[in-house]
Structures are given as C-alpha cells and as structure tokens.
Input
Amino acid sequence: MNEADQYLLGYRDAEQARLERQALELSNDSAQLFDEIGVAPGMAVAEIGCGPRGCLDLLAGLVGPSGTVTGIERSEDAAARANDFIASRGLTNVVVRVGDGRNTGLPHDVFDLVTARLVLINVPNPDELVSEAVAITKPGGVVALHEAMWPLHTTDPPLEAWDRLYAVFQKYAAVNGMDLFVGRSVPRLLRDRGLEDIRTNTISQVYPLGHGRRMLALDFVENLGGRFVEQDLIDADELGILNAQLRRHLEDPDTFVISALFVQAWGRKPS
Output
C-alpha cells in the first residue's frame, strides 16, 4: 500500500461524505460510551483518526468551554473538512491537526481521554496506534476504542456474490496489513499496554431497507474496486457482475441484513 494512503477505504470525496453520515449514524452508540466513561466538563480529550467529523462535536459538548478536544487526522483533506465543520458549528474548544495516529506529535501523559472509532480496522499495525493513545493519556486517564469485526454484513438469504466479495476483502486486507477482525482484540490490546479496569460493550444492528448503512458493502466495493483489480485479486468484469448481484440483493426488501459486530472497550491508565 502506498505510504501516503494507509487508510483502508481511501480518501475520495464520496468516502469523506460517507464518514460525515457515519458520524450521525453512530452518535448514539458513542454518546452511550462516553456517558459510561464519565466524560465531563473541563476534560482534555483527543480523538485519533477523527476524519471530517468523527465525535468532535459530541465531545465538545461534553467537555464544555472549560475543556478541550484535539482531533488528529492523517488526511489533509479530511482535516480541512473537519475544521470547516468546527467553524460552522462555532466549536471554539476544538482543534484538528494533521498527523499520524502512530506518532501524533501530541505531548505524553496529558489527556483525560483518548479515543478512536473504527480506525484500527482500517490501518496497518493498529497496535502502534494503541500504544500512542496510551502514551498521550495522562495517568488515571482513559483510552476508549470503538471497533468492528467482520463480516461487514450478514444477509439472509445468503448470497454467493457477497461471499466471493468478502473473500476478496480479506485477501486485500491480508496483503496490506489490515486486520478485519481487530474488534475482538481491543480488550487485549489495552490490557497488554498496562491499562486497568478494562470494560467492554458489544453492539449489533439490523439494517432494514432505507437504513443509511444497509448499502455499506456497496460503498466499500466502490472505494476499493480499483485497488482489487490493480492488485490482481479479481478482474474488472467479475467485480462488476458481483457488485450488481449484491446491489439487487440489498435492494430486495425481503433480504435480512445484520451489521458487523461492534466492540467498545476502554480502560484506565495506572496513576
């Protein structure tokens, strides 16, 4: 994978727009997580891999004007979108910086909370990002991760076309150093870095016809299809046929669609 483009799903405009929608779609789950952690006014919070919106506005409201929210985003375009969003909302307690989640450039032992949502699953060497999150968290502070475990979708009736595409996703992830099953590992990743009082939530959702995330698999195929072909994982003709079959399946109101399994895990850095 190109060093400059280490995010699994790329940075095209349509993907940035999808991430902006995702921020709203996942906001209730994130709000519940931050409530359980006890995010409160005056806290200093960092979000790694915030993208064009992430949890920035949610966290800004929780920490209030006496607190701070720092977003770290690798993509300059996504960071610019985030800063436009911040300005449009008048969020004076939020700043977004361009940086790598593995080496943020932020000071160590400073933040009350460091969080990332659906970042580890999309980058190589996710353990390095967790190490950085722990390093910049202050003693007594919390690291909180919200991750997923594939398959992206489970459908009934099953669909051979999706099975084939899922196999291609797995090959692509393996070749490029991504772990599509990292969600199951997040409690261990935190524990191995010395965090205490590890707690977890799991979330699974149903995506009925009309749900904003029902067509997520099509978005992912659109993002990565060119790379699949370039890396000889599938030819363009087969990809087109499979994608069309998947679209028809997801557009069928009788198709039952279950989300990936989402895992929230958080722990406290020893004082």
Strands lie at 44-48, 68-73, 94-98, 111-117, 137-156, 196-203, 256-268.
